[in-house]
Amino acid sequence: MKIAIIGANGKAGRVLLEELAGRGHALTAIVRNAARTNHETVLEKDAFALSKDDLSGFDVVINAFGAAPGQEQQHVELGQHLIKQLQGTRTRLLVVGGAGSLYVDPEQTIQLADTPEFPDAYLPTAKNQAKNLEDLQQTTDLHWTFISPAAFFDPDGERTGQYQLAHDVLTLNSAGESYVSYRDYAVAVADEVEHHRHDQQRISIVSK
C-alpha cells in the first residue's frame, strides 16, 4: 500500500516507518525538515499546509504528529485540518493517540486523565488528543482509526511481535500493567493498516 506518515521523524513516527518498511509498503515521510530523516521518499511540508492533492495518492495517512509543550492545541487543529482534507475520500486516516482518554471503569464514566494519579504535565496533551478523538467520532464520510497505546508507552522496550487489542477501557497485561513498547505498538498499527478491521473506531494496544 501507499502510506504517508506525518511526523515520521518523531519517536513514534520513526518506529512506524521502520515496521511498515519492513513489510514492503511504499512509504512517504511527511516532515517539515527533510534533513531530519534518512528515508528516501520525503514530502517536505508543514502538516497544516497539506492539501487534498498532497494526500490523494495515499491509501493510508498516519498522523504521528507530536505537539511541542505549550502548543498542545495543535493536536486538535491538525486533526480538524486532516478531517477536512480527507473527508469524502477513500484514503484512511490512522491517528497515533494517547492513553489519557481511555476509561478506567467499565461504565466508561471516568477517563484516565481525570484520575488523581495522572501527571499534570501530560494533561494538556491528553485533553487535546481526547478532543481530536471526539471530532473524529462526530465526523461522517471519513475512514479513520484512533489507536491509543497503554499508559506506559515505552520507547526503549523490545519488539515481541505480540500484543492485546482492546477498545475504550484501559486494559492490563498478564503482569497487571498497562504497558506497551513503541515497537509492539507499531506492529499493531501495521496490522490495522493491512487488515482494516476497525473503521471509525478507537482501539487501544497493550502488551501480552
TrEMBL record:
Looking at the record, the residues that make up the NAD(P)-binding domain are 7-190
Which CDD domains does this entry report, sorted A to Z? BVR-B_like_SDR_a
Any Pfam family the entry gives: NAD_binding_10
Cleavable signal peptide? none
- Quote the protein name from its UniProt record: NAD(P)-binding domain-containing protein
